[in-house]
Design a protein that fits this description.
The complex is a heterodimer of chains A (119) and B (111).
Chain A lengths: L3 E4 L2 E4 L4 E8 L5 E7 L6 E7 L2 E5 L6 E7 L2 E7 L7 E8 L14 E2 L3 E5 L1
Parallel strand pairs in A: 2-11
Antiparallel strand pairs in A: 1-3, 3-8, 4-5, 4-9, 5-6, 7-8, 9-10, 9-11
Chain B lengths: L2 E4 L4 E4 L4 E3 L1 E4 L6 E6 L5 E7 L5 E4 L2 E4 L9 E3 L8 E9 L3 E4 L3 E6 L1
Parallel strand pairs in B: 2-12
Antiparallel strand pairs in B: 1-4, 3-9, 5-6, 5-10, 7-8, 8-9, 10-11, 10-12
Classes of the chains: A mainly beta (119), B mainly beta (111).
Chain lengths: 119, 111
Amino acid sequence: ETGVTQTPRHLVMGMTNKKSLKCEQHLGHNAMYWYKQSAKKPLELMFVYNFKEQTENNSVPSRFSPECPNSSHLFLHLHTLQPEDSALYLCASSQDGPGQRGGRSGELFFGEGSRLTVL
Amino acid sequence: GDSVTQMEGPVTLSEEAFLTINCTYTATGYPSLFWYVQYPGEGLQLLLKATKADDKGSNKGFEATYRKETTSFHLEKGSVQVSDSAVYFCALRYGNNRLAFGKGNQVVVIP
């Protein structure tokens, strides 16, 4: 138990569906992240939120839409996805996130991931 | 940009064997370096880290030394167990607390 919970653990969707991934952290952290993990590729940072504000969007297609209503919750809304979007989506959180002064531990706490399959 | 490179391919070895996973980095300056581990069905968790040259990170019998001269941070364990079977990721920190990860190495330990 890392203190970061992701739901659902598995999701199968068609290309025309709309679904959402949810992440909740119980660690009191101020930064949250979405990563994409595909086979045989490095983890790809998708979005970063610091104090609910998006501070990074790594050229992610608009069919992925993040939402961060508060420092403890992060969503990834999915619509009209492509089969190549099938991957494990990992949420992470950290304290002393981007833009914070002093003490950048660099330690990210990850959830167990949501395995997405797009048919 | 800053990046890490891990050796290609999975690693299969017998219980009690010596494990080495190579990691080299490219970066401006001297970034903090990390090893993360991902056990089956789980997310990544920090295994060890080093924040400056010649530092040695260690945890659970694993060690890695920050080598500035060879820009490396190789992971080693003297005697692996079946429970060490997992995927291991090398990473470096850059910019505003961003992590760049390697592709990961699948380690399979056979009883």
